[in-house]
Amino acid sequence: DVRLVESGGNLVQPGGSLRLSCAASGYTPYCMAWFRQAPGKEREWVATIDSAGSGYADSVKGRFTISKDNAKNSLYLQMNSLKPEDTAMYYCASRRTTYCAGTYDGLFGYWGQGTQVTVSS
Fold first, then answer.
1. What are 51's strand-pairing partners?
2. Are 75 and 21 in contact (CB under 8 A)?
3. pLDDT tens readout for residues 16-46
4. CA 41, 77, 67 angle in degrees (round to 5)?
5. Is 75 in contact with 92 (CB distance < 8 Å)?
């Protein structure tokens, strides 16, 4: 079975940092992504990484860094300079392709259960 398990979410003050992790099992994904969903809002793409490189939503560019450790079959999201508007449930996702070729959440067949990030003073 394919499983994605996120961890690292927490309550943090504005301006603070968090590092999210996502452990994959069942296969080695090349295309992986982070999405988030705030209360009352639709799920939105945050960042992707694949064999060609990485990409970011404008709202997080320069503050968040996505990375992947193939040896550990794990995905990470380093989040710096956090803002209250970053508060959301963060989800790890993957698809069975070498390249992500898009940020639409319907492209991704595997999802984790989510980890909550709350940015508040």
1. none
2. yes
3. 999 999 999 998 899 999 999 999 999 999 9
4. 135
5. yes
The length of the chain is 121
| Pair of tokens at residue 34 | 């982070």
Q: What is the pLDDT of residues 76-87, one digit of tens each?
A: 999 999 999 999
Residue 34: closest CA among 115, 96, 99, 98: 115
106 φ/ψ angles, rounded to the nearest 5 degrees:
-65, -15
- Which residue reads 């694949």 in tokens? 50
pLDDT at 101 over 90: no
CA distance 23 to 59: 25
Contacts of 8 by beta carbon, 8 Å cutoff, 6+ apart: 18, 19, 20, 21, 115
- How far apart CA 53 and CA 67 sit, in angstroms, is 10
**Burial class of residue 60 (count of CB atoms within 10 Å of its CB; 0-12, 13-18, 19+):** buried
